[in-house]
Design goal:
Layout lengths: L1 H22 L5 H9 E2 L1 E2 L2 E2 L8 H22 L6 H23 L8 E2 L1 H17 L3 H8 L5 H24 L13 H28 L1 H8 L4
Parallel strand pairs: 1-4
Antiparallel strand pairs: 2-3
Length: 227
């Protein structure tokens, strides 16, 4: 039983790496995208690109309590999604957030700037995805690992975040503002490059989410009743 649960935990650690490697684009490529290709003017005031980081914590404050009540109500109704399904739904929303940039691209102006609402909806979906996945992590580790290995398992869980941040940096480097020969790309070319990379991330996340959902029953079997 414990062997199966540890196998499930390792699988969830890999999924965790994928989620946070993409989510942490917020502090790197998405902020540079906001600086170079997002129209941030609001009633004559231009929002600094760094301030777009405000959206995620704002949505956490708005939706955090709502989600906590929602999970309790769903649990009482016996409809609370399993841990694998929460991971799947979280990554699905993360991917959908990146795909929002394709919608924003359709509304780009002559200066290759997309509307600020592109980032608002992107971060909204990223935040709701985070609220599906993030709160269950630590309790899941303690439930899936034997008491004698709980500390090591917790260390492995936090190591997955470190790996995710490293992988996130590699992903962000793909959106660099310079061409292959080193010259700085134009705003229009940069917008295409950003949306291409973000769309690739988005579709990859959607594919991974579908795969996790399809493996929901086998993963639950490995977990031996852990919820």
């Amino acid at each position: 039983m414990w062997r199966d649960r540890m196998i499930a935990l390792v699988i969830f650690m890999v999924i965790n790496i994928v989620f946070w490697a993409c989510f942490e684009q917020a502090g790197t490529s998405l902020t540079l995208f906001a600086d170079r290709n997002v129209s941030r003017e609001i009633f004559g005031w231009t929002m600094p690109a760094s301030m777009t980081q405000f959206f995620n914590p704002a949505f956490i404050i708005i939706f955090g309590s709502i989600f906590s009540v929602m999970w309790v109500k769903l649990d009482q109704l016996g409809k609370n999604p399993s841990i694998p399904m929460k991971f799947a739904l979280g990554i699905l929303q993360l991917g959908a957030g990146f795909l929002i940039t394709l919608v924003g691209l359709q509304f780009a102006n002559e200066e290759a700037m997309v509307p600020l609402l592109t980032l608002v909806f992107l971060y909204l979906l990223h935040t709701t995805g985070e609220l599906f996945l993030s709160p269950i992590g630590l309790s899941m580790v303690t439930k899936l690992s034997p008491k004698s290995m709980a500390g090591t398992a917790m260390g492995g869980w936090f190591l997955s975040f470190a790996i995710a941040n490293y992988a996130g940096g590699l992903i962000a480097s793909l959106t660099g503002g310079h061409g292959d020969s080193g010259e700085e790309v134009t705003a229009a070319a940069g917008l295409v490059k950003y949306t291409d990379v973000f769309a690739t991330i988005g579709w990859t996340c959607v594919g991974i989410a579908v795969l996790i959902a399809l493996l929901n029953k086998p993963l639950n079997k490995l977990m031996h009743g852990v919820k």
